[in-house]
Amino acid sequence: xxxxxxxxxxxxxxxxxxxxxxxxxxxxxxxxxxxxxxxxxxxxxxxxxxxxxxxxxxxxxxxxxxxxxxxxxxxxxxxxxxxxxxxxxxxxxxxxxxxxxxxxxxxxxxxxxxxxxxxxxxxxxxxxxxxxxxxxxxxxxxxxxxxxxxxxxxxxxxxxxxxxxxxxxxxxxxxxxxxxxxxxxxxxxxxxxxxxxxxxxxxxxxxxxxxxxxxxxxxxxxxxxxxxxxxxxxxxxxxxxxxxxxxxxxxxxxxxxxxxxxxxxxxxxxxxxxxxxxxxxxxxxx
Length: 286
Hints:
By secondary structure, the protein is of the alpha/beta class. The chain has helices at residues 3-9, 16-27, 29-32, 37-44, 48-57, 63-78, 97-117, 120-132, 145-157, 173-177, 196-207, 245-261, 263-268, 270-277; strands at 136-139, 162-165, 185-190, 211-216, 229-232. Strand 1 (136-139), helix 9 (145-157) and strand 2 form a beta-alpha-beta unit.
């Protein structure tokens, strides 16, 4: 049995505190499964020992084993690990005008649904935080990395300091995070299957007092509970599990709003930019 089935099978035998843990796990399964033992005990208002006894009652040797099994189950339910929906009827057949129109409608729908989920005040607040930040740390992995890289180029053009964190080298990552504090903003891209390393970076940023803006697909995603602002966007398309159409649009909206906010500063520095650009006018060195 998976962890959810085990909980439901023996729910009647739980003590009052154990039921509190079980209810939390069943109610917020998408996000709770990524919490540490300490965070989960605080969220359930029980001791760590109570949680240890709870997982042992479920048949697990320790909390780590339970957490691994629980994460595997939740991630398998969130989205299969393949990129393409193999069961999609659109994966078969010939390319026709009707098929092209269906794809266009799907892409438009991704944007429309995403725009409907994001409140204007969330965008305004996100822009204000990014504008005032000492450094903007961008956190992404796999398919969302190019989206974060594009946003970094937009921020550089606007004269804002940003850094795209590499999650490949875990020896260097702590040294990069050591510079972060309450003056900095983290923009985190998190989509299924949710990366544990991204969640760990978010937890670290929260512990260091940084502000976190999360661009994700649902309010119950694991990163949402660590974030100050959550910008939701739809990513499930006709064929692909994670389409980056909406996330790309969201970062373009943020960049455009930032450009509007920073226009006066950009105008003040225009002569300096033009003078420096003159050094690069010649594409061929004699």
